Input
Amino acid sequence: MTRLSWLATAGAAGAAVVVAVAIFGPLVAPYNPDAVNFNLVLAPPLSPHHLLGTDQLGRDVASRMLYGARTTLEAGIASTLLGSVVGLPIGVLAGYFRGPLDMLLMRLVDVMLAFPFLLLAVGLAAISQPTLWNAVLALGVAQVPQIARIARGAALERRDLEFVQAAVVNGERNLTIMRRQILPGVLRPVVVQTTVAIPSSIVGAAILSFLGLGVQPPTADWGAMLAQAETYLYQAPWLGIFPGVAIFLTALCFNLLGDGVTQALDPRRRR
Amino acid sequence: MLWSIARRALIALVTLLLATVVVFGAVHALPGGPATALSADSTNPAALAATMHRYGFDQPLPVQYGRWLGEVVRGQFGTSPITDIPVATQLAQRIPITLELALLSLLFAVLLGVPAGVLAAVRPGGLTDAAASAAALGGLSVPHFWFGMLLILVFAVHLHVLPSGGFTPLSGGVASAGANLDHMVLPVVVLGAGLAAVLMRQTRAAMAEALGADYVRTARAKGLRERRVIWVHALRNSLVVVVTVIGLQLGGLIAGIVTVEEVFDIPGVGQLTLDSVYQRDYPTLQGVILLTATAYIVVNLLTDILYTLLNPRIRVTGSAA
Amino acid sequence: MSTPENPPLLNVDGLRVRFDTRRGPVLAVNGVSLEIGADEVLAVVGESGSGKTLTGLSVLGLEPPGAAVTGHAWFRGEDLRALPAGRLRSIRGGQISMVFQDPMTSLNPSLTVGRQVGEVVRLAERLSREAVRDRVTDLFGQVRMPSPERFLGAYPHQLSGGMRQRVMIAMAIARRPALLIADEPTTALDPTIAAQILDLLASLRASMRMSVLLITHNLALVRGMADRVIVMYAGHVLEEAPTARLFEAPAHPYTEGLLASVPRAGASRLTSRLTPIPGQVPLLREAPDSCVFGPRCPHVRDECRVAQPPLEGGAHSAACVLRRLPEARKAGGQA
Output
């Protein structure tokens, strides 16, 4: 049907690897990621028994990296899904019914836009506690406007197509029309946007944990690990390099995948 | 056209008001109630009662909102219970610093990303294109705080070329400007890199489309130099993209400012945000959030207006007819 | 017609334009040769897909990316297809200029028309800003735009189709070229406006003694304006004749078919029928091994399936086996 370029396939493969690590990593991790060992603090990589070294509490970096994949990916994907699940109905409703409902929903979306994800995370952290799920909530809400806009645009386009108008004239119920006629045309751009948004969510989640607004220690998370690494940057640079490279490569793979999906599915770009 | 600007401004105002409602609601959702948040000593019941009365928390909600809004509009954000300094003063001190960081980063991103995108589009598939696209992909994927840490490691710690953080204010004179810029180089590069990456990709796409358009063919048929065809005819129609991208990337930019200020220890609004969260300094937090939300809405409005101005079709007829 | 004492202004020789598509190479222009003399109007007529537009574009090197062009285009002693980019650029707009089909997309939407025409003027000589303005205003007057100064600051989308086309023409004549290539100049316009534009072109051509390569699918245009006509089909030239001859005594079945399928002024519903040519223009893969028009030709015979017939005849030539078989020429086939 549609083929992905080799770069996109490489990205997909990389993304699959990361997902596999997230799922199966904890099973093969040599150590408990929270196990401290004050005898072996800040051991450099390639130390015996510790391939990637240990951190300031003697915890095995490799194991923490494997566990960290899970939290990072969870946050990134869950928030993107949240954004899509909430944004899609908003957009479809706004685009289908137009008029006052459209204006209302779009103002709602505008207000959401006014609070970039960082502010939301800050706010949530202030009201309750900073947790992973607050971070997911903040990131997810921040993505709703974009998805809603795209869904709305697609719904507006679909709505004007003749077979949709025929269904309206036929007296079909609104819900049925939306489900059968509008939704298929909306799903494609929304899926594209969702795929494209995953890497930003992953990085965003890392930012939030880095700033202490998401995952809290001692949970292993790449962003949180980087936050701790900041203090030991000079003595133990590997603490900062490994998680950072991991985030970078993960985001890169998902970006390549997203690019490929965009090119394959977006009809306008078909050459 | 003025009408469409006015309409947009009105919508922005409405959004702003709704945003204040959200903030107001959030303050009241705090555990222990807003009085706990706003008073310096939240364990003393007498002090609590005094705060409640002073801020009028015993009044009905809409009245409270009205009072609060009135104070906020006049710039009275209250006093920080931690430092005892009025929030407004703190903000006034830090805003210019953050502004400098933001503007320099924006400038850097535009000067780097747009020409790179143009050059890549002119020779698609060539070396420039491949290199620039790869760099852009990297810039998109790299978490900037990590990038910042790496740069600090290389330039400050190992090479000792640039300072690892801190800030020197501009106090007039070339020397202080030099020191100021010294401190700004790494943060600006870090903050601007991500935006430059997006700009490069979008510019490239817009230029590629422009270069294939009929009017470019006409320009060539007229005998114009290729350089003029690219930089005058094609680019002009791609510039709207720059404005649109900046508008879309604002959210990320704000996150970026906060992280960069943290990593490089720059005393701006971003750092204040983080500090106030860590210290549970609610009045300051409230002020910062309000300020940021307002700035966001205003900048969005400005980019919207700029987009309208740049598109001659809309400029003259008032709509994209 | 050109003679040894009066060499042609433009001599296109063996032009081939090939596209490599997913299904194999396609020859959109397959061995086209034509000549235009000084102060002469040559019309190239054909349906969509005949390759006529590509022929015009290839003369100036404006063919789309992905097009592999071979052949020669001799202009005043130089082969345009073999020129270095700088030299070709200097000829464009100055000695040979082009007017395109759709003035809405062919004009830059972000620049005023005054500026776009001014660019061409500036290429010719260094002038002050006011002098350029005057020149542009003058040109706008030449293309019969009312109140020309008013339009200097206008954007393309503010103008009507006819006005935009006038702007295109103004750009094309600004440097008094010897040859103007007009690619379907009136296709996108209303008939009334189209007539005005054609009239304008005719009068400009006369006053400037300019040659015109008129590319069109509209036979009616051809009759009023062209000295000679070339009929193209599927990348080949099928007939070439002085205009009057073509209309009176078409030598190729395709031309006959074209003439029969077009409404003629003065003909009433009762006396003449419109007879469309059945079938569609084929896309050529490689050198055809039979006459390209054969599948749709009412006179097709065995000899037609051997090879594409070459153009034969002098001033009035046709690529048809029927030319060689005078007794097979259908009597009464002349319209």
